[in-house]
Amino acid sequence: MRNDEADPVDARLGARLAELRAEHGWSLGELADRSGVSRSTLSRAERAETSPTASLLNRLCAVYGRTMSQLLSEVEAEPEAVVRSAGQPVWQDRTSGFVRRAVSPPHPALRGELVEARLAPGADITYDRPPVAGLEQHIWILEGALDVTEQDTEHHLRTGDCLRMRVWGPTRFRCAAPEGVRYLLAVVRP
Known about the structure:
Strand content: 25-35%
Distance between the termini: 38 Å
Strand order of the largest sheet: 1-2-3-10-5-8
Order of helices and strands: HHHHHEEEEEEEEEE
Mean pLDDT: 89
Shape: globular
Number of strands: 10
Helix content: 25-40%
Structural class: alpha+beta
Radius of gyration: 16 Å
């Protein structure tokens, strides 16, 4: 896909990723070393030739010390105090079947945010590290079932269950429901 044909959010996201790298004074090679993502993948994401996956964004957020919501909010308009349903930004990782709606887009002065997430049946997403060490997450299952692994502890969550965790290491989210899963994620920066 050429940049002029890219999804507008992907195009703005790619430009922001390039800006962040430039702000740190890093070459693609340096960022690749820090993030564990190949130079070619980083280059394609910055040029919006590919839509970045949730795992890729998580790795970059870890390097830049941001949550995914913070990064995505930087390519969206400044959030209003009231965000109507129709105005809540939606981002999709087509590769993994992950869809996230920023219910309450983050604001620089606030530490918390709400995200509605959906995973398609069979979706399996692994994050090798948190975007911010010690990030607090509350996962409330609205519909379906989700298996969450934090480091070596596995949690089997069903409709109505809520998991609270501080994220220090790798995590894994697997959709354990044949109809998919929808959950609310409350994120609080340390």
